[in-house]
Amino acid sequence: MIRSKYTWKIDPVNEEKTAEVARELDVAPSLARMLVKRKVTTSGQLDKFLHPTKYEGYDPFLLAEMDQAVARIKQAIEQGERILIYGDYDADGVTSIAVLTTALRKLGAEPDFYIPNRFTEGYGPNQTAFQMAKDEGFDLIITVDNGIAALEVMTFAKEIGLDVIVTDHHEAREVMPEAVAVIHPKHPDSNYPFTDLAGVGVSYKLAHALLGVEPVELLDLVAVGTVADLVSLNDENRLFVQKGLMQLREKPNLGLQALAKKASVKLAEATEETIGFALAPRLNAVGRLGAADPAADLLLSEDPEEAGYLAEEIDQANKERREIVKNITEEAVQMIEELPEVPRILVLAKEGWNPGVLGIVASRVVEKYGRPTICLSIDQETGLVKGSGRSIAAFHLYQELDQNRSLLTAFGGHPMAAGLTLEKSHLETLTANLNQQAEKLSLEDFRSSQEVEAELALAEVTLPFIQMIEQMAPFGFGNPKPVFLFKAVKPQDPKRIGADKTHLKTVFAAQETQIDAIGFGLGFLAEKLSPTAQVDVIGELSINEWNNMRKAQIRILDLAVAHWQLFDVRNRTEWSKIIQEQAPNRFYVCYHEETIQKIPADDTQILTPQEAADLASQAVEELVFADMPTDTQSVETLVEKVQPDRLYFHFGATENIDLEVLPDRKEFAALYKLIKQYEPFSLAKYGPGLTQKFGWKKEQIDFMSNVFFELEFATIDSGVIKINPTEAKRSLDESASYQERARQIATRQKLLYSNYFDLYDWMKRIMET
pLDDT tens digits for 76-97? Predict the structure, then answer.
């Protein structure tokens, strides 16, 4: 048995609606089901969904106050006023700066940009920065990807005579800020048909309005910022990303080219995953460690040499960021492991932690423990504690923090993520309050869930089906990459692959169909899938191309085995692997003291058969029979009581027994006849002759003689045997030695020399009766 890591959820689909859409759009039911989930139900919606180049974005002037913004910016350009673009330190923020700066340069302006420092200024506008801009002679500030909630700062700007245009997409407060214009897709006076633009999307709409034509050459930047900010990839965002990926493949921004080269990715084959896993993390990295200006400079660079230098600086920052995240995550895990028990919500704080990466660390901890997690950095000089939190679906982090507003200096966020600052003196109270609020969570809430598109049979996985799915890209929030469930498939030859052997490769089989499968980071499962295993698996579908051959492939995300499993580790190599593994819920059953001495004692649970019987009261994942029992019944009794998820049979013999085969009745008769013929029969004198004539070992001669003594057929005195004068006939089975040796040999034959499937059938009778 293997329990799945995630709770698998399949949202039901109206089958009547699915059938209707399948007929209307002339598509397969499997595709219709996916389209219905994505609210693509008409031919027009499908055409726009699949063929973005045929369509254009919405009129930017549908956004409220766009007229005022364009007029004020053009006035500033005509009058030679100084313009400052006030951005943010993440990928959405720096791409927003690059898009608007490029557009303004086309109009003859020479704007500067300013990005607040994450550590000294925090997110968004601040009075100090605005006053500095005024003092340096700037006449107009345009915020990108921030500003909507900075009501007090905007009022301050008005007081000092500094004009501000706000462009943002974050949640607004109860009123709009006082500004020349506020461009926001959710502006209460807006007629804009799509409300989920990223910050770079809003910046792009302003650029479009200023230029009078859509600057499609900037869509690669828009795609990067949109994917990086995890906004919904529906409607206009989908259009931006699809067209942007085309731009990224064909004529990308110079800075993105340089960055892709450092990341060893080919932009000619770019997908949304190229952005999400290669480009965006690097653009984010510099702002997590210090000033984010190099990221914006890179995207605005027109000099290949400069772009290469900046890309190198950013790539090094990303490597440093990864190392910092790794170290802090290890420290956080160690802190948790030292707790007497894992609390319902984890609040971890330490001096010296980098606040810029604590959101990533919190995500890693949530992934490992399934608990809402807040990671905080303690600043002893200021007495402040600052960091980020990540949550689970059942715990609305923003609302739970909002209940502790009085303890917090600042906070913000949404259900699954938040940033916060508080005084160190309030940390203990906040931790206690949050854990009390988390008492409503159940154990099931702590299991992460994975949305599953549908259940499929392996036979349904074809190259045309996968190509059909690929047309639904780009995938992301609002249009997740389809994950499918396959039930009761058989993994064949599972093995570890990769330089560090951390990945799983296998072939799933069902009836006449076989599909290659790979599970990244799941290499440990290779040893936990038995030859008779049937698995339920969820995964994504892809096409693997190798040596000009194209084959369907399942990328395993999670799997489960619902039944018990038997593993044959009688081989010395397999046994060596087992005793070297760290397995916290593995119990070794040892019948002989000398076996115990051969098993490493560190963190190993070694039991006698009597102690192992007590395991019946608890759930046991793995039970290992380390050496040879006296009989098979003891194995059956123990397995029946404990009912482990996984059984391992080693049955290592502590020593070779004297006889591997029980002498037959003819051999006993031959020895008896010889003893009677040469009575008194000296074992020392005649033993070697018996070995030479019959091939009997000394151990066999001694054993047969002892049986005669027990049955009172003969007696021995000083090594000389004499036949007893008796006519009574007795069966060899009446000898205790004969019975014991027969049992030993039968046990060894069954446990050491049976093939795997014979052992499995034997255990199947015990486990499933």
Answer: 999 999 999 999 999 999 999 9
DSSP for residue 398 = H
Place of tokens 């501000």: 164
> Is 516 exposed, middle or buried (CB count within 10 Å of its CB: 0-12, 13-18, 19+)?
middle
| Cα 330 to Cα 325, 336, 391, 524, distances in angstroms | 8, 10, 19, 20
Find out whether 233 and 477 touch, Cβ atoms under 8 Å.
Answer: yes
C-beta separation of 631 from 550 below 8 A: no
φ, ψ at 549 (rounded to 5°): -115, 140
Tokens of 121: 């200024």
Q: Which of 641, 741, 748, 650 is nearest to 699 (CA)?
A: 741
Q: Give 621: exposed, middle or buried? Use CB within 10 Å, 0-12, 13-18, 19+.
A: middle
Mapped onto helix, strand or coil, the DSSP state of residue 114 is strand
Query: How many whole angstroms separate alpha carbon 570 and alpha carbon 649?
Result: 6
DSSP 187: -
Please tell me the chain's helix, strand, coil percentages from 3-state DSSP, rounded to the nearest 5.
Answer: 45, 20, 35
- Cβ distance 658 to 703 under 8 Å? yes
Beta-bridge partners for 438: none
For residue 141, pLDDT over 90 is answered with: yes
- In the DSSP assignment, the letter for residue 303 is -
Q: Are 416 and 390 in contact (CB under 8 A)?
A: yes
The edge-to-edge listing of strands for the beta sheet with 140-144 is 112-114, 83-86, 140-144, 163-167, 181-183
In this prediction, residue 577 has a pLDDT band, given cuts at 50, 70 and 90, of confident
Per residue in 226-278, pLDDT (tens digit) is 999 989 999 999 999 999 999 999 999 999 999 999 999 999 999 999 999 99
Q: In the predicted model, what is the mean pLDDT of residues 544-548?
A: 86
How far apart CA 12 and CA 395 sit, in angstroms, is 24
Determine contact, residues 386/395, Cβ cutoff 8 Å. Answer: no
Q: What string of H, E and C letters represents the secondary structure of 209-263?
A: HHHCCCCHHHHHHHHHHHHHCCCCCCHHHHHHHHHHHHHHHHCCCHHHHHHHHHC
Reported as type and span, the H/E element at residue 725 is none
Q: Return all residues near 371 (Cβ < 8 A) that are at least 6 apart.
A: 342, 343, 344, 345, 346, 365, 392, 446
| Residues 6+ away with beta carbon under 8 Å from 348 | 332, 335, 336, 365, 373, 374, 375, 376
Q: How many CA atoms lie within 13 A of 92 on its CB side?
A: 20
How far apart are alpha carbons 48 and 405 in whole angstroms? Answer: 45
Whether the link from the prior residue into 116 is cis, omega within 30° of 0, is no
How large is the greatest C-alpha to C-alpha distance in the chain, in angstroms?
A: 135
CA 499 – CA 124 distance, rounded (Å): 44
> What is the CB neighbour count within 10 angstroms for residue 546?
8
Q: Is the pLDDT of residue 657 over 80?
A: no
Cis peptide bond N-terminal to 464, omega within 30: no
- Listing DSSP states for 454-501 in one string gives EE--GGG--HHHHHHHHTTPSPBTTBPPP-EEEEEEEEEEEEEESTTS
C-alpha span between 315 and 116 (Å, rounded): 21
Give the gyration radius of the chain's Cα atoms: 37
Polymer length of the chain: 769
Q: How does pLDDT run across 410-421, given as a tens digit for each residue?
A: 887 788 888 899
